Automatic annotation (TrEMBL):
InterPro entries: ABC-2_transporter_component, ABC2_TM, ABC2_TM_bact-type. This is ABC transporter. The keyword rRNA-binding does not apply. It comes from Methanobacterium subterraneum. Keywords: Cell membrane, Membrane, Transmembrane, Transmembrane helix, Transport. Its main location: membrane. PROSITE patterns: ABC_TM2. Residues 183-415 form the ABC transmembrane type-2 domain. One of its GO terms (cellular component) is plasma membrane. GO terms for molecular function: ABC-type transporter activity. It is found in: Cell membrane.
Length: 421
């Protein structure tokens, strides 16, 4: 198999190329360290997030006064009125909707998070009040309701907005609960009443969110940026091979274009996996809140390989039009940096939804495989999700990468490997 010989040759040359190794390994590490220092302690900025509230609460009558109350409405107003500390900027733009409409808004990325308030929310709180009053009257200790209320919080796990929103929501819910309990205990003299736990927030399929910082959402983007940088080094390397006449000599040996290009694919794919591992290590040192175990690392490296193949294909396209390795390198930087911004490596771009596929919104940025690679890395490393949670993004990234690779191989074969060139 001739492509193995090409792979061994390219791997040896890769090790000797100090400038290339610096760009693809050390340069992203410096970025990761800088971002860790700058953003590591930043939990959130003064940005208003879109919150969909599904209030199913049917209300209840207060004990003694028979006053009609709806604690679901009350909690919704608290979400609507909450502001950043020392600022008049609202935390949430609250949207009231049905559950089906709320899910649609999340899928279309028009909302950052949704919270469902159950229909028995007010009644359960009133029951606890009545139990406390009865306990005060009889001189006994009230018993807590075993059916703790569940407030369901959900959203798009790949969204930075959801990551920040859920942390804030849980804090607001905890404060609201504390105030309610204090109010109940004050009305019943408190001395004979057990500490109450009326409800708890339930965040669907998301773990370890209590200590997220902005750096946690930027770290996977830096990994993607490093993977994209492979395109510059690959483009320069392939162009150098053309200038040295190596590819012309390989052509004489009747080696196929597929063998040449597939052989080059192997060492660079390994480098992409190593990049993810190295940058994850640096991110952990800088305080990245990594979720998941060894499986998540293996899965992240596999995702990196798919992204690396896409970057290699992009490097082939660049090398097809560059006259020398310097031009290829510079052209690669001009392509890679804007692409990193477009796919959201450094910050989330405005929503540009062009349609819906398989129940999920499809944005203009989704035509690039690296958008899906970034979503998958975030899902695995930030939220600790497994393979089943990233199937959609992996499928799209694989299909789009295959298309770009065919285009890259075709262009490079036509402009660099054909006999007339």
């Amino acid at each position: 198999m001739k492509f193995i010989s090409v792979a061994i040759k390219d791997f040896k040359e890769l090790i000797r190329d100090r400038r290339g190794l610096f760009m693809i390994l050390l340069f992203p590490m410096f970025f990761m360290i800088i971002f860790g220092i700058v953003y590591g302690n930043m939990g959130q900025t003064n940005e208003t997030y879109n919150l969909v509230v599904v209030n199913l609460d049917e209300g209840a009558k207060m004990p003694l006064t028979n006053e009609e109350v709806n604690f679901g409405d009350n909690l919704t107003e608290i979400f609507r009125d909450s502001e950043y500390e020392d600022s008049d900027v609202k935390l949430f733009n609250v949207i009231n909707a049905s559950e089906s409409s709320a899910n649609k808004l999340i899928q279309l990325k028009e909302a950052d998070a949704m919270i469902v308030i159950p229909k028995n929310f007010s009644q359960t709180i009133v029951d606890e009040m009545e139990n406390s009053i009865a306990a005060q009257t009889t001189g006994t200790t009230s018993s807590n309701n075993n059916d703790t209320l569940k407030l369901s919080i959900s959203g798009d796990s790949s969204s930075m907005g959801f990551g920040v929103s859920q942390v804030v929501l849980i804090k607001i819910i905890e404060d609201y609960q504390d105030n309610l309990v204090a109010n109940i205990q004050s009305q019943t003299s408190g001395s004979s009443v057990k500490p109450l736990k009326l409800f708890e927030g339930d965040v669907g399929s998301v773990s370890g969110t209590e200590s997220f910082s902005q750096f946690d959402f930027l770290a996977p983007g830096m990994m993607l940026f490093a993977i994209l940088l492979l395109a510059t080094t690959v483009a320069a390397s392939l162009t150098r091979e053309v200038e040295k006449g190596t590819l012309a000599r390989l052509r004489i040996s009747k080696m196929r274009s597929f063998d040449m290009l597939f052989g080059a694919l192997i060492p660079w794919s390994i480098v992409a996996a190593i990049q993810v591992l190295i940058l994850l290590t640096v991110a952990l040192i800088m305080g990245f809140n990594w979720q998941g175990g060894l499986n998540s690392i293996v899965l992240a490296m596999f995702i990196g390989v798919i992204g690396g193949i896409g970057s290699i294909a992009l490097g082939m396209i660049i090398a097809s039009f560059a006259k020398n390795d310097t031009q290829a390198f510079n052209l690669g930087i001009m392509v890679v940096v804007p692409t990193s911004f477009v796919v959201g490596a450094f910050f989330q771009l405005p929503q540009v939804v062009v349609g819906e596929i398989m129940g999920r919104s499809f944005q203009i940025y989704d035509i690039l495989p690296w958008t899906h690679i970034l979503n998958a890395l975030k899902s695995v490393l930030i939220y600790g999700n497994g393979l089943s949670a990233i199937t959609y993004d992996l499928a799209w990234s694989a299909v789009l990468t295959a298309i770009i690779f065919v285009i890259g191989m075709g262009l490079f074969s036509r402009f660099r490997l054909s006999p007339e060139n």
